[in-house]
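Pinned message: reference record for Peptidase S1 domain-containing protein
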Amino acid sequence: AYFPVLFCYLYVSLAVNSDVSRQKRIVGGRNCDDREHVHHVRLESTNGDVKIHCGGTLIHPQWILTAAHCWKSEPGWVIKATLKVHPRTAGQQQQQIQQTPVIYKTFRQFHDIMLLKLETPVTDVRLARLPDCNNRLKDTPESGDTVKLAGEGATTTGHKNQLRERNIEVMKIKSLSVSKVRNAPIPSHLQCLRIINKCIDRDVGGAAMHNGMIYGVITGGAPRYPKTGPVPIMDVCNYLGWIKQTTM
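Predicted structure (tokens):
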């Protein structure tokens, strides 16, 4: 049987030691500590045999932050959240999302960010902290920012690759720059983690973490297998007021 793998990627703007193996910099890595990314949530939307997999982040005992396009509003769709996916010894918990998701909306603009409310509060998982927006991610590769991405997917490029058993891993990439995407519909609300000529994997809806805080929600991309190029993220600081008002 083939299973997706849950990864924790570490992107650093400073060059890593040249002795680090190329395999580890591209698709390999080490297992994360059991205390890392415990707030990661696995989301599965189903309608009959059709399934959509996304990631999410527990930011409140009853609220998950994720990408808006992970939700399907058409009749027949059901979305379930699996909590405590890491570490494996935590004992997974699953809840079906009963309430209509709260999606950030503005006139004629699509914002790929939403909040899902759990019916039962989660009290035994350490939450992801909201960002310190006085200390935002920089736009230059020399900034020294370190960003972690958590996601589920294959370990190599291409849709026919064998997938591995789910696990959380960490990987170092040689360089990072965080830059605004100027031609985006909402350029001031979207950022990009540019990993040039690197093979990456991520989970749409998952978190971009910096200093233990969630600064971005991964949007777009290919959730089933790795992809090269920029990783677009929704800038959480631009939605902080909405998040706090919704979850209070």
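Pinned by admin. Summary line: The chain has one domain: 30-155+172-247.
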